[in-house]
Amino acid sequence: MEKINNYKTICVFDYNPNIEYTILKSYRSGRNLFGSVGSVMPKFLNYSNRLDGNTIINFEGGQRFGFWPWRLVRPVVYGTSVDWPAKSNESCKELGGRVYALENHRKVLDITDQI
Length: 115
Description:
Blueprint: E1 8-12, E2 22-30, H1 41-50, E3 55-65, E4 73-83, H2 89-94, E5 98-104, E6 107-110
Parallel strand pairs: 1-3
Antiparallel strand pairs: 1-5, 2-4, 3-4, 5-6
């Protein structure tokens, strides 16, 4: 846990919480080929970090069907990056969100259970 405290964290909500925030941008991220939603999460969360967002609301992720045979099923995630001035990892968990630690641009850790 001590090592994780040094990482930047992002709070992710599956819904629109009743908090004060500033909307930065709605966006989606995906892969062109098959894979899991977990394989798209580093790209998705790091983009929010580049926008200076510390929270994602209305998160949705799943498998999408493409037109071409080699793109039959691919992972896609959606969400809105926001700046929540009063964000803390504890308040995120209390409101039903998940907390992710950004280890590097290719790896993120779900640390919700460690808070």
